[in-house]
């Protein structure tokens, strides 16, 4: 009978040199991230301005050929190390020799210097990088999204939270981009559903503005167009409705609340006018004058220069009826003041 020999803790299986090397390299990368590869480039690729005779280092192109990758990828590591050297985190290229080891920064700092996309070096990429840094996110993430607008569209269509983030960003962009404002405005007016939605929101905003005007200024416009000081109870009611509107969540529909507040204020204003005899008379007088001015303007706009070309008996009949109505109105007004023709 053959007995199987089972390795024990006292007689371990010999460790493979290949496994040990992988573990060491993994540990270096886990601690340093891209700095380990940045060091390989920094100590092996000669800086610009140095000739091959001055240093054993090679060009980025030669290094890329030896590594089996593109020169652009090598230069991204090169530029990341250069930026970090300018900040004093790592030695400059000139201070490094092939094979030299140095203490490397924390892995988390690498992404602040390395950009994995060549688009980051363009004017557009630079702007995206700066915006990403201002938002406190990695530039690589923003650049990846910018390079794949179809993926961005898919995320917006599928995910409400992404759509809200896109809407917020678009609104911020609109404030400083008149051309985009005009384009979006054209899109809205050409889309019936959006046009209706804008009209609805605009009406709600106007109604909220009416309530806010009463609450904050203490003045109110009457139905006839007068501006008067709002009674204390009316202003308090406006403040109450305004506080309710201000407490609504951003995604809540304000239309119904705005309509209720507006209708309540209009009703209270009308009641306040009727409760004050002097104000009631002034309101009716203002309304009468407003109607009279409108009627006068309409009549003044009538032209009779070419009347012979479209004359009809019905036109004369209507003017005669208007004349009789005006005469009756004048008679009643004179009678009300005790004035006789």
Which features would summarize this protein structure in a list?
2 strands; 4 domains; 15 helices; 341 residues; mainly alpha
Describe the SSE topology:
Elements (H helix, E strand, L loop, with lengths): L16 H16 L2 H10 L15 H8 L3 H16 L36 H13 L3 H8 L2 H10 L1 H15 L3 H12 L2 H26 L1 E3 L5 E3 L2 H15 L8 H21 L1 H24 L6 H4 L2 H24 L5
Antiparallel strand pairs: 1-2
Helix pairs in contact: 2-4, 3-4, 5-6, 7-8, 10-11, 10-12, 11-12
Short synopsis of the structure:
This protein has 341 residues and is an all-alpha fold.
Report the sheet with the most strands, covering strand number, pairing sense and barrel closure: 2 strands, antiparallel
> In what range is the share of β-strand residues?
under 5%
Unreliable segments of 5+ consecutive residues: 1-11
Structural class: mainly alpha
Q: How many distinct helices?
A: 15
Oligomer: single chain
Widest sheet, order of strands: 1-2
Helix content: 55-70%
Order of helices and strands: HHHHHHHHHHEEHHHHH
In total, the number of domains comes to 4
What's the rounded overall pLDDT mean?
81
Q: Note the overall shape.
A: elongated
The N- to C-terminal Cα distance equals: 144 Å
Number of strands: 2
Radius of gyration: 40 Å
